[in-house]
Amino acid sequence: MRIERIGERAYRVTQLEVEPWRMALAVRRTVSAEVAEAVAGPADLGLFLYAAGVSVEELLAIPPAEPTEGRIWTLPVCFDGEDLADVAHRVSRSIDEVREDLARADLRCVAVGFRPGFPYLEALPEAYTKVTRRDSPRTQVPAGAVAIAGRRVGVYPQGGPGGWNLVGSSAARWSPDLDWPAPGDRVRLVRVESLTPGAAWRESI
Fold first, then answer.
1. pTM (two decimals)
2. Residues 123, 120: Cα–Cα separation, whole Å
3. pLDDT band at residue 108, thresholds of 50, 70 and 90?
């Protein structure tokens, strides 16, 4: 484990023995947000201390969340992305097999970042490591686009530039008033033939 100080009371933790989302979830569950905050990245953990008398070491001593914890979300997706054929070629599968891989994947949100509401979801089958980011990012990706880079899936909550490979579209749109997948939550992409406006993230009970 490596602890790096990045501010007066801010720290970046790398080389954790467990997934960062598990520690972030455990800290949020144990300590109030007025005392400390934990933010998971795909490979690191940010810790922000707001109250005196709490230390990084104390927070990291909290038992990590279990792998089975977290909420379960579904997102209807029309797998019609313009990079779908190229992705299929790279992984030596048919377009429909790629659609099936995406719909069958039991994904985990490991971080939210890059822009508000953009979830980093893992992990697709090993073959998808061949699907690297695009050499030339697009200047405009439509809001709701579903894309992959390597074994990760992302959902663009807003329009804007992006370098991942587009494999589908959804009705997901970012709003601070909406609940949204958080690190530790599980996600299933539900294959649909057409999108219904407003039918986006849904938490399973």
1. 0.86
2. 9
3. very high
